[in-house]
Amino acid sequence: MKKRAVKRGQFLQFQRLFYLDRGKLAGIILDDVESLKCGIPQDEIHGVFKSRWESPGTFKGLGAFRSRGQADNSAFEAMITAKEISKNIKEMNKNSVPGPDKVCGISLR
Question: What is the DSSP string of the chain?
Fold first, then answer.
């Protein structure tokens, strides 16, 4: 079997696991072990995080923080033109996978 076909098969397997069992997928990706368990009880972990996040912090504010005003933000002030959008769509990889918005490059062309 070709190397590309093997990678494609692995990708499809990982994609399926992403929807069915993210814990198992994380185990495979992170340490190549599918059944690694944490030895610390979940209640203990929860208690430590809860006590840290619920306790009042020592943050007193930013003090005399002020902007230097040296940033050039003029690029963000101009409107995006239809020509720029069209140019960027044409430069996109048409074989890219969809992002969080479920839109891929080929569907925009």
Answer: --HHHHHHHHHHHHHHHHHH-HHHHHHHHHHS-S----SS-HHHHHHHHHHHHHS--------S---------GGGTSPPPHHHHHHHHHHS-TTPPP-TTS--HHHH-
